[in-house]
Amino acid sequence: MFYEPARRNHGLPHNPLKAIVAPRPIGWISTLSEDGVANLAPYSFFNLVSEGPDIVMFSSDGQKHSVTNIMATGAFVCNLATRSLMEAVNLSSKPIPADESEFELTGLTAAPSRLVKPPRVAASPCALECVWIETIDLRDRHGENTGRLITFGEVVGVHIDDDYIENGLVRTEKLQSLARGGYFDYSWVDNVRSLPRPT
Ligand SMILES: Cc1cc2nc3c(=O)[nH]c(=O)nc-3n(C[C@H](O)[C@H](O)[C@H](O)COP(=O)(O)O)c2cc1C
User: Mean of the pLDDT values across residues 112-138?
Assistant: First the structure.
């Protein structure tokens, strides 16, 4: 089959694109509101986009609480979503008022960060403390703003649970990093093969 997204002529019950661009890593973003309320939400339009400087990005469909908080406070934390935390990750996506915390909703414990104010998820084995760089309104091919807000942050601190480091390497398959697919699908990494690059 072939379809053109602008024509929405795929003929399928749901848009298949996110099942094709899958698995996508999940940025489980914790922030603090101006009033000090700890917010937590998963974003699968998320990735590491630069190394040295280490820069991550996530894309928000409109100005959700995470973006508002980051713009107000200048910082966020990307917690690693893992298989064992899948239910909590999913629950933290529930739309709740800005003055309520997803930490309370999920029962997750917040641990202090070292270099930024937003807390991290204590149960998550890895966390990236980030300082806000900028948020841009993504434009389409006609130059029109889309209202999809892409936030970039520089990683200034990295937490890794030592249990997941073996012979100096972080074992992704042991972490069972969680990813998003299409529809309501999740998957996780439990199988890794190493192949050195050709020289
Ligand atoms: C696994 C998962 C991934 C998600 N990815 C995104 C995303 O990339 N962009 C987005 O705008 N919403 C995404 N959502 C929905 C947000 O998590 C949801 O709207 C949430 O309430 C936003 O919270 P906030 O307002 O506290 O920032 C995702 C939801 C789930 C369950």
Answer: 98
